[in-house]
């Protein structure tokens, strides 16, 4: 077993920009990313919250990761903080960032490794306050609620000031009184104090240009190494019917180009690499000017994803000049019918024209994301996906650039607070058969990447479970697929869930979307009808309820 404290010190020594504070007289908060350092240090939300807490002089905020050296490492694996290498039990608050449901297991193991009781009802003033935020807490906190003292339903900039004020006195008094106070703060779900209104309303930043969200810590030991990550946009207004970004994070908001270029210029003092992030980066009204402007400043620019229907050659040239190897887009469905049904308004000709532009720009790879097992999908739609893939490869080959085609095809996972939230997931045998159609009919030279149908089944259970998920996670000793399948069966989570036909567990949060709107979107899916994207805020749209 490696020395976890020595490893933390080594990683810290190779970082630039970490905040190290003396603990004397300060409230200590650990931001815990329950996955590896390599993945976590490319998570911009983690770095943003870290900076927000450390901006308070009377707070010290440190990072921690659940990072076993191998899949065979024993659980629970010991976890210490990065900056001071302390045990997590020494902190006043443990704040988990939960972006992916598969990290729930690691959260449980992190608490165990620190000797902290798993369930909130077993903890008192001797133990850290355990809170969690992130996308999972917006979509459905019910499954892990028994482990949490508090869940943050919303964006950190809106909630952290009230948290800080409550913690300054409350952390040193009665735990019950503190939870009472926290339950009254908008955007906080305290599982032991059911909300009076029946649901906790999501808090969101109306003008994201009034905030800062870019990475302040740089390291080579991460997925996006030595790159300043900059949030360009938040939310998405396209309304793809499967996507939480287009529902839970509405409305779409964009940072001003001038602010973004100023951040790029500042970041160049530390690294030439800049990554522009957001659910709808490609919809930024000044994206071309932003990317070209950043390139002219001397930045090597990357963009998290593009839209296939607006691939500007100027942007592609700037990305290629900056060393971007892969251009990524997401048509999601292979047939025109299914793209209309899921509200992905792109035509086959737009996809093929986009492929030609990518090839002409000389990109090494053109990666497209697709899904199979969508509601109402038929085998013919999958054959159409294979045919489309072959046409894309032909367009790329005609450019003579040698651009490789990568198709990433994932089983659909119906998510809470989307139009498909009540849909039954396609059976694993259906997914396997349709994966076989693609393997059989795609031309040689196309790199097909597919997720396991059983992994998708587990993801579905984790996403839409109620409080019975907590004892299931408690019972698991490893996070292999076989362990998940056994635990799901043993705890009665395999098959129809008891909330079907009743109020679903995720309705404990209110993301602002009306159920009427979501039901209407499902009706439009069945009738293969499109919904227009979100209009600008000055229009005063009231269609979905968020604004």
Write the layout of secondary structure elements.
Elements lengths: L3 H10 L13 E7 L3 H4 L3 H11 L4 E7 L27 E5 L6 H10 L15 E5 L1 H5 L10 E3 L3 H15 L4 H9 L4 E2 L10 E2 L25 E5 L1 E2 L18 E2 L2 H11 L5 E5 L9 H11 L2 E4 L9 H9 L4 E7 L3 H6 L6 H13 L4 E8 L6 H21 L4 E8 L16 H14 L5 E4 L2 H12 L4 H7 L5 H10 L18 E2 L4 H12 L21
Parallel strand pairs: 1-2, 1-3, 3-4, 4-5, 7-17, 8-11, 11-12, 13-14, 14-15, 15-16
Antiparallel strand pairs: 5-6, 9-10
Number of domains: 2
Tell me what portion of residues adopts beta-strand conformation: 5-15%
Q: What is the CATH-assigned architecture of the largest domain?
A: Alpha-Beta Horseshoe
CATH class placement of the largest domain: Alpha Beta
- Given as residue ranges, the uncertain stretches (5+ residues, pLDDT < 50) are none
Report Rg.
23 Å
Helix count, per DSSP? 18
Give the proportion of residues in helices.
25-40%
Please state how the strands of the largest beta sheet are arranged side by side.
Answer: 2-1-3-4-5-6
* Average of the residue pLDDT scores: 95
Q: What is the CATH superfamily label of the largest domain? A: tm_1862 like domain
The CA-CA distance between the termini, in Å, is: 52 Å
């Amino acid at each position: 077993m490696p020395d976890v404290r020595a490893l933390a010190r080594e990683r810290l020594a190779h970082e630039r920009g970490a905040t190290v504070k003396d603990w004397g007289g300060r409230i200590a908060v650990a931001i815990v990313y329950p996955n590896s350092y390599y993945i976590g240090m490319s998570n911009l939300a983690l770095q943003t919250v870290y900076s927000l807490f450390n901006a308070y002089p009377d707070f010290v905020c440190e990072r921690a990761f659940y990072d076993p050296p191998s899949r065979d490492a024993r659980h629970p694996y010991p976890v210490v903080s990065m900056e001071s290498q302390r045990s997590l039990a020494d902190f006043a608050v443990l704040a988990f960032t939960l972006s992916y449901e598969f990290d729930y297991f690691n959260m449980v193991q992190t608490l165990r490794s620190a000797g902290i009781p798993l369930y909130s009802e077993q903890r008192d003033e001797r133990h850290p306050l355990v809170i969690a935020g992130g996308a999972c807490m917006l979509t459905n906190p019910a499954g892990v609620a028994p482990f949490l003292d508090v869940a943050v339903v919303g964006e950190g900039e809106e909630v952290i000031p009230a948290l800080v004020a409550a913690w300054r006195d409350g952390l040193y008094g009665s735990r019950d009184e503190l939870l009472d106070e926290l339950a009254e703060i908008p955007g906080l779900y305290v599982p032991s104090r059911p909300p009076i209104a029946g649901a906790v309303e999501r808090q969101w930043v109306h003008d994201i240009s009034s905030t800062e969200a870019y990475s302040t810590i740089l390291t080579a030991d991460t997925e996006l190494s030595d790159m300043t990550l900059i949030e360009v946009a938040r939310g998405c207004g396209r309304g793809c019917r499967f996507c939480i970004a287009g529902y839970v994070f509405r409305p779409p908001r964009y940072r001003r180009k001038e602010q973004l270029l100023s951040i790029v210029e500042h970041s160049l003092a530390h690294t030439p690499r800049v990554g522009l992030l957001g659910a709808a980066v490609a919809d930024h009204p000044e994206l071309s000017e932003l990317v070209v402007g950043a390139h002219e400043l001397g930045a090597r620019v990357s963009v998290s994803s593009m839209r296939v229907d607006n691939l500007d050659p100027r942007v592609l040239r700037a990305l290629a000049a900056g060393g971007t190897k892969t251009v990524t887009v997401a048509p999601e469905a292979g047939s025109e019918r299914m793209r209309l049904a899921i509200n992905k308004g792109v035509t086959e000709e737009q996809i093929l024209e986009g492929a030609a532009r990518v090839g002409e720009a000389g990109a090494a790879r053109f990666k497209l994301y697709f899904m199979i097992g969508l509601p109402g999908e038929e085998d013919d739609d999958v054959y159409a996906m294979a045919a489309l893939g072959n046409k894309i490869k032909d367009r790329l080959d005609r450019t003579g650039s040698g651009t490789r085609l990568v198709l990433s095809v994932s089983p659909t996972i119906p998510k809470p607070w989307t139009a498909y939230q009540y849909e039954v997931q396609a059976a694993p045998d259906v997914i396997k058969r349709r994966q076989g159609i693609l393997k059989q009919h795609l031309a040689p030279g196309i790199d097909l990447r597919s997720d396991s149908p059983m992994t998708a089944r587990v993801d579905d259970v984790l996403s839409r479970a109620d409080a019975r998920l907590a004892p299931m996670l408690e019972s698991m000793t490893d996070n292999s697929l076989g362990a998940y399948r056994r635990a799901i069966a043993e705890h009665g989570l395999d098959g129809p869930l008891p909330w079907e036909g009743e109020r679903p567990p995720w309705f404990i949060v209110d993301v602002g979307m009306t159920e009427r709107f979501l039901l209407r979107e499902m009706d439009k899916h069945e009738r293969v009808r499109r919904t227009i994207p979100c209009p600008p805020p000055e229009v005063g749209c009231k269609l979905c309820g968020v604004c």
